[in-house]
UniProtKB/TrEMBL annotation:
Entries under PANTHER family matching the protein: DEHYDROGENASE/REDUCTASE SDR FAMILY MEMBER 7B, DEHYDROGENASE_REDUCTASE SDR FAMILY MEMBER 7B
The protein's name in its UniProt record: Putative oxidoreductase
Pfam families: adh_short (PF00106)
Alphabetical list of InterPro entries matching this protein: NAD(P)-bd_dom_sf, SDR_fam
Family designation: Belongs to the short-chain dehydrogenases/reductases (SDR) family.
Keyword Oxidoreductase: yes
Record flagged with keyword RNA-binding: no
Gene Ontology CC terms, in alphabetical order: membrane
Source species, domain of life: Bacteria
UniProt keyword annotations, A-Z: Oxidoreductase
Amino acid sequence: MDLTSKIILVTGGGSGIGLELSRQLVALGNSVIICGRDAGRLAEAGNLTGAQAIAGDVTIAEDQERILSEIEAQHGRLDLLINNAGIFLAYDFNTDPDTLQKIEREIAINGTAPLTLTRRALPLLAKSEQPGVLFIGSGIAFVASPGTPVYSGTKALIHHCAQTLRHQLRPLGVTVFEALPPVVDTDMAKALKSGNFKKMKPTDVVRDIISGLRRNQTEMLLGQSRQIKWMSRIAPAFLFRQFAKTEFH
Ligand SMILES: NC(=O)c1ccc[n+]([C@@H]2O[C@H](COP(=O)([O-])OP(=O)(O)OC[C@H]3O[C@@H](n4cnc5c(N)ncnc54)[C@H](OP(=O)(O)O)[C@@H]3O)[C@@H](O)[C@H]2O)c1
């Protein structure tokens, strides 16, 4: 995929991987639009990177529609939708007082929103000559993570849906990409002690994603995620035990 003069929407572009994606994509000469719930942080990110900030919550249908309408009004098309926004919740399913609300929230943000936003964006993507959708998944899609009862399941969902949508949207000319990073050094992973995992730098993650997009590599296994996928096939019980040792601050 050519990555110059494209109209690109990055959800969750106010911090972490999304912020770095918008920084590197703007630097390549693309028009980048970022969204997120914290309007102040988003505006700051916009000033820092040169991306256009549109505040909004990707779990709210009206916000999804408003963001896409603003892009249509200003740019007339969307070339690449990057479903990056996400949350990571570590808690005990039995004893946490907010388990019920956490289950709903994590599935809504990590699972439902990227899919509904993709569906709503299809008419605008159809106006592009080379449309694409990129899901930011995770290497944890390949192993259940005992400390995070729902997170790894949401990433497994995205991994499966990325494959089915790649098949279903191909006749429309839409290329579906998925990037699966390992642990990355962002706010999200702050509570995670490094232990067995080396935290990858957001700059390196994004460099690899951009290189993958340019080569039309539809499934990008980044850093240790390649090993996780491979281990999940040959030694799943061992891999599960390694993840069970993960400590949180
Ligand atoms: N960090 C890791 O170790 C790691 C590893 C593999 C995959 N990933 C994935 O990479 C993606 C980015 O994570 P990150 O590490 O960059 O975390 P991050 O720094 O916490 O960024 C997440 C972003 O998502 C936004 N967001 C959350 N809920 C939203 C909502 N409902 N609507 C709109 N925006 C929302 C947040 O902004 P607001 O709070 O302002 O809305 C924030 O800017 C996630 O999908 C994550 O699962 C991360």
